[in-house]
Write a structure and sequence with these properties.
Blueprint: E1 9-12, E2 21-27, E3 31-35, E4 46-49, E5 53-56, H1 73-90
Antiparallel strand pairs: 1-2, 1-5, 2-3, 3-4
Length: 91
């Protein structure tokens, strides 16, 4: 398994968006392309260096087919919202 895969959740660790949770849309040699379904929709992902993100290893079930293009911005928002709710209950 590659360290970065489409559908994985990733925290921004550098820049003005530090602490923001995104979903990885695509991977390049040096960059990942991130989306949150709101400010950074699927058609305009954020380009960020790999060293500036921290990956959450599991891929949510709704995003397993992300590379097929069957995912919408609403799905991205739902997954991020659900992850943040679960995480806040754990802390």
């Amino acid at each position: 398994m590659d360290r970065y895969e489409p559908g994985m959740l990733a925290w921004s660790r550098a820049g003005h968006d530090t602490g923001q949770l995104y979903v990885i849309k695509g991977v390049d040699a040096e960059y990942v392309f991130l989306t949150d379904g709101r400010l950074k929709p699927l058609d305009k992902p954020k380009k960020k260096k790999k060293k500036h993100v921290q990956v959450v290893r599991n891929i949510p079930q709704e995003l397993e087919n992300m590379s097929n293009g069957n995912v919408r911005d609403e799905d991205i928002r739902r997954v991020i919202r659900r992850f943040l709710n679960v995480e806040s209950r754990c802390n």
